[in-house]
């Protein structure tokens, strides 16, 4: 069994946790036998993916083909809907305010048609991804009776919304284009960290390619594609008259955190999804938070025992901050706090 290590990755940056999840899912979809993901041992753990017969060439081709296939018809990534006279990505969970009930019906019918096509084609990974991203929320309302449209979206979907931008049309489509167009060998070098090429962000010092999963800056586009695909490994639970619950997230409004585990024993992607949704992981991450979000000490102790029994070294907790204007805020996961001396 061979492995690929993301040598530039930092456990205190959420982007690399999501990239690990996404890469594991992509390789599993590509048919690599016995895919497993973990972190290397030591003071500076790195994400690593292994599988039977896995090579750099296989990783390079799998990620490029994964991006290319999402640009090949029929593809949900290419679908648009017209809102206020402008085309927007149909499957984005956060979009321009709809207002008109007929627009809601139009968007829902179009979305359901895409989901039916994916179901007919047995595209389970895409369906899992879209379910984790969420959808424009029509069931939660404010006191004036207006839909709280963003309440059905994953909190991990942090694409800035200035000038009408949105996740699918603005970010995912562009990343798919540049990753699928890369020369042979240049995808895996980005993942391994021997090169960093940010085509989508023009290698600018304030590039938004990380999409809130890291501070602005040049980010290899293959890593970013894997990271945004990794959102699919963190299920979403919609709620009536409340913001949907995102796995790996605590808090609300201006008091929010993401959290992610670090472990050494290689896990299959399905195991990762199971652990990421576990209440015990949430409780371990909530230790020492403000009273509204903290757990009882006894629950915290039990959670840490649960982690240890599964060879989880600890949890990294990422504070979320807002930047920009109140009308178009940019949410961002800041550098994480390791909740274990092993990290």
Largest sheet: 5 strands, antiparallel
> Structural class, from helix and strand content?
alpha+beta
By DSSP (H or I, 4+ residues per run), the number of helices equals 10
Alpha-carbon distance between the two ends: 26 Å
Large-scale geometry? globular
Order of helices and strands: EHEEHEEHHHHHEEEEHHHEEE
Radius of gyration: 19 Å
According to DSSP, the number of beta strands is: 12
User: Roughly how much helix do the residues carry, as a percent range?
Assistant: 25-40%
Could you name the ranges where pLDDT drops below 50 across 5 or more consecutive residues?
Answer: none
Strand content: 15-25%
**Can you give the mean pLDDT?**
94
What keyword list fits this structure?
alpha+beta; 343 residues; five-stranded antiparallel sheet
Structure summarized in a few sentences:
The chain is of the alpha+beta class and 343 residues long. It contains ten helices and twelve strands.
Structure description:
The protein is α+β, with helices and mostly antiparallel strands. It is built from ten helices and twelve strands. The protein has helices spanning 14-29, 56-69, 101-120, 124-133, 167-180, 186-192, 221-229, 269-276, 279-285, 297-309, and strands at 2-5, 36-39, 47-51, 80-83, 86-89, 236-239, 242-246, 249-252, 255-263, 312-323, 330-333, 337-338. α1 crosses α7 (221-229), α2 packs across α5 (167-180) and α5 crosses α7 (221-229). The model has no long low-confidence stretch (mean pLDDT 94).
């Amino acid at each position: 069994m061979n492995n690929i290590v993301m040598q530039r990755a930092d456990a205190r940056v959420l982007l690399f946790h999501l990239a690990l999840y996404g890469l594991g899912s992509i390789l599993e979809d590509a048919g690599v036998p016995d895919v497993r993901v973990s972190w290397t041992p030591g003071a500076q753990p790195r994400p690593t993916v292994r599988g039977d017969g896995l090579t750099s060439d296989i990783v390079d081709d799998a990620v490029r083909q994964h991006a290319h296939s999402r640009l090949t018809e029929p593809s949900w990534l290419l679908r648009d809907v017209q809102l206020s006279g402008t085309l927007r990505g149909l499957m984005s969970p956060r979009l321009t305010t709809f207002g008109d009930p007929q627009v809601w019906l139009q968007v829902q019918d179009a979305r359901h048609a895409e989901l039916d096509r994916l179901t007919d084609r047995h595209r389970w990974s895409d369906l899992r991804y879209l379910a984790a991203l969420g959808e424009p929320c029509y069931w939660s309302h404010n006191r004036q009776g207006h839909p709280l449209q963003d309440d059905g979206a994953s909190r991990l979907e942090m694409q800035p919304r200035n000038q009408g931008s949105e996740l699918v049309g603005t970010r995912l489509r562009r990343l798919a284009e540049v990753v699928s167009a890369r020369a042979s060998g240049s995808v895996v070098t980005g993942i391994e960290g021997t090169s960093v090429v940010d085509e989508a962000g023009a290698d600018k010092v304030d590039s938004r390619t990380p999409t809130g999963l890291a501070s602005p800056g040049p980010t290899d586009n293959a890593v970013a594609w894997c990271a945004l695909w990794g959102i699919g490994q963190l299920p979403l639970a919609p709620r009536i008259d409340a913001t949907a619950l995102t796995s790996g997230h605590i808090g609300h409004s201006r008091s929010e955190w993401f959290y992610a585990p670090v472990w050494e024993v290689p896990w299959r992607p399905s195991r990762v999804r199971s652990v990421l949704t576990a209440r015990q992981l949430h409780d371990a991450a909530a230790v020492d938070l403000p009273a509204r979000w903290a757990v009882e000490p006894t629950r915290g102790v039990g959670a840490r025992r649960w982690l240890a029994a599964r060879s989880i070294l600890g949890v990294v907790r990422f504070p979320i901050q807002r930047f920009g204007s109140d009308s178009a805020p940019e949410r961002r996961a800041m550098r994480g706090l390791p909740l274990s001396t092993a990290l």
